[in-house]
UniProtKB/TrEMBL annotation:
It is a single-pass type I membrane protein. InterPro entries: ConA-like_dom_sf, Intracellular_Lectin-GPT, Lectin_leg. Its main location: membrane. This is L-type lectin-like domain-containing protein. Residues 31-254 form the L-type lectin-like domain. It is found in: Membrane.
Length: 307
């Protein structure tokens, strides 16, 4: 009876310790998956629809390849839009895309990532409406004007619902930030990672130099978007063309904010040291409890033998 009680006590202590550790590990996670704003193969159900996204224009869904916003044909436009607003003001969206075509010197025009209050509708800004409210990130592959940078060019614009994106200037007068990136016709998957913390920053990283290598594109501080924004993608072609495809979308709600007071590389080692010492103390404590239980168990057996 004493043996059973001691073993039960030890099991309870071990279970409590493991449960506490698991809860702490869970708390260390900084993001929650948003299935309502994620999209992967085969994209649509048996009834040829999606519960969370709608599409229109020249968009075609290939359940084995991707969502083609435009074919490599002039004067085409298509869009893909979430049915529900993003449920959080801090989010991270990673998406794989593909821009390709037969053109070697002339091709275009590109596609856009949207986080706006607008409903899906065709328009002149990469296949969507102008004077939008929210965020537009433009993956521009064709230069409409003489610019100080090369193309393709990835840039952001924060729309107020009144200011227009000017195609003739490639949006240079309303650009918040941007970077050059060879995102067209790569031999490996091209991706973008967009991270937004309300009132803190907007950050874009790209995978275009090599597979599984993220290259920083830009960071804009003190960005505030409307509280309710919809996730969208659109593309268009003019006299020249390209195929623009969205292969996958993975969205997360981000819970922990980036600390800007210290460089990232100095904060991480201190955090690991703190976590390591915490685990060490728990192991020592568990070992001590086990030792006490073993001593009581052995002493109980010796007393039993006497009688």
């Amino acid at each position: 009876m004493v043996r059973l009680t001691l073993l039960s006590c030890f099991a309870a202590v071990a279970t409590t310790w493991l449960t506490t550790s698991a809860e702490e590990a869970k708390d260390e996670g900084n993001k929650v998956y948003l299935s309502s704003h994620s999209l992967h193969m085969p994209y649509i159900d048996e009834e040829m629809r999606s519960n969370y996204f709608e599409f229109g224009g020249d968009t075609v869904i290939n359940t084995y390849k991707g969502i083609r916003l435009t074919p490599d044909i002039p004067s085409r436009a298509g869009w893909l839009w979430s049915k529900h607003a993003l449920p959080t003001n801090s989010w991270e969206i990673e998406f794989e895309f593909k821009i390709s075509g037969a053109g070697t010197n002339l091709f275009g025009d590109g596609f856009a990532f949207w986080a706006t209050t607008n409903d899906p509708a065709p328009g002149p800004v990469f296949g969507s409406v102008n004077e939008f409210e929210g965020l537009g990130i433009f993956f521009d592959t064709y230069a409409n004007s003489k610019a100080s940078h090369n193309f393709p060019y990835v840039m952001a614009m924060i729309g107020d619902g009144k200011t227009s994106y000017e195609n003739d200037k490639d949006g240079s007068n309303t650009e918040a930030a941007g970077c050059e990136a060879e995102i067209r016709d790569r031999s490996f998957p091209t991706k973008a990672l967009v991270t937004y913390f309300r009132d803190e920053f907007l950050e874009v990283k790209l995978q275009w130099e090599a597979e599984n290598k993220w290259t920083p594109c830009f960071t804009v501080d003190k960005v505030r978007l409307p509280s309710l924004v919809f996730l969208g993608f659109s593309a268009h072609t003019g006299e020249i063309s390209d195929s623009h495809e969205i292969i996958s979308i993975t969205s997360h709600s981000v819970k922990k904010q980036r600390k800007t007071s210290q460089p990232m590389y100095t904060a991480k080692p201190a955090q690991r040291k703190q976590e390591s010492s915490g685990w060490l103390w728990k192991l020592l404590a568990l070992g001590g409890v086990g030792g006490v239980i073993y001593y009581l168990y052995k002493n109980n057996n010796q007393n039993s033998k006497r009688f």
